[in-house]
Amino acid sequence: MNRRDTLLSLLLAGVCTAGQAGTAKMAHPWSAIAPLVAGAYSGICGERPGGADKPGKITVDADGKARAPGMMFDPRDSQLMELWRGREGKTVQSKVVLRAEYEAAYFILLPDNGAYSAALKEGEQTLGCDGVAAPARLNGQPLALSLAPLLDASRTIECRTGAEAPPRDALFRLARGKVQLGDRTFDLTQPGTETLSVGKGRGMQYGFELNDGRAFTVLYDVRGGVKGAALYEHGEPVLGCGSDE
User: Fold this and answer.
1) Domain spans of the chain?
2) Is the pLDDT of residue 230 over 90?
3) Quick check: helix, strand or coil at residue 77?
């Protein structure tokens, strides 16, 4: 567990108060993510390791499944799904990592020297493709906007300003890239770094961070309801809300 997750766990020591905890928003988070990643990733491809390179492609089809000749991986079977979106220099870039348990299968899409590289694994087969196109829809706008149906939520939640501080009730609302947490607000559409992780059977975590150390994190349970949230300034937690149970 990294330092930020540890601090978040310390702050999220209260229990959720009466309010809208949230209900399941869709059958699986991938239903919202897949349209942002769907497309044909054509480039110079080869079996890894050691295969001869030749033109080829890996596709993420309309049904959300990643495919290449003789291979198929359904990201809904992922043990862990991770998205990253942020600026590197003046360019917005994204990363996608979808991994089954023990990496028995995966789909990976990463920036690579001004282009992107993609890889698909199923069983003993692994195909890697270099020089593929960028995921235009994923890069096109902040995750907080493109995944609003997945992330937007509102509820009453119990918050603390530190592990020893008394709890108090506050309104949590995330709507179209704007966060309200008690009397504090945060704009997730600013240039910054966004991350989304989805653990099988463990819910989701969305995070946003600015270069100056201001940051926001929200945790969702397996049904898509808000479990907890936290705000940071200069890398230090200033407000933690919810329950980490």
Assistant:
1) 3-28+142-242, 30-139
2) yes
3) helix
